[in-house]
Amino acid sequence: MADDLRGQIERGELEPGGQLPTEFELVEQYEASRNTVRPALRRLTEEGLVIAGQGRGSFVRRSLKPAVWDWSVLESRTRHTSDEQGDQWASVVAESGRQPRQEVRVSIRRPPSEVAERLGLDPEKDLTVVRERIRIVDQDPYALADSYFPEELVRGTPLMLPEDVSAPGGVLASVGLVQARYRDEITVRMPTRAEVERLSLPAATPVAVHMRTGFDENSRPLRVMITILPGDRHVIRYDVSAE
Predict the structure, then answer these.
(1) How confident is the model over 125-156, as pLDDT tens digits?
(2) Which domains occur in the chain, in start order?
(3) What residues does 103 pair with on adjacent strands?
(4) Three-state DSSP class for 178?
């Protein structure tokens, strides 16, 4: 039963967003019991092909248009200087003909251990300014991006405002904190419950965790940004020299 329904989905006979037959209809169609129908639907849900609507039946999962990110140039100094639209994330989305929007929340708190380690801070004594953002494309939540800054470095700067902020060359550079290089770390895992809720993730959707640490020319860490990228709506691209 699962194989047959999967084939209908792959051939487009059951369209994205369309409702599957009800359990009762599947029982009749396949001459099977509900104890057979339910595991078949559960298997398709676990494969990420079907979404179970609470009390409304099952639906073919709707695919979101992927956003393509060239991380080898994003946040580059050249792009920062030439970007007329301010925030680089928003400008990349807008260049693709789509509508970007961010919901921003700012707080001051102790850094988690993995952030403290990368910023060279004491997780029990030092403070960070945290900018939490939900990044939205065409009404759909596409990513979470949390940036951590040592509080003593950005105290009194625009980075403490709970709103979108931007500046030519980047906000950090505008206050004399120039990032000279980055270190990227990428892991892939299943999302937490909070991430599922904030990103409206269907079942069986892994996320990529992109952690970028920015350093000044003296290798002092200035920022850690952790971006949660759902695997069903992002392509990450790098151009790497073979030298």
Answers:
(1) 999 999 999 999 999 999 999 999 999 999 99
(2) 2-60 (1.10.10.10), 67-237 (3.40.1410.10)
(3) 134
(4) coil
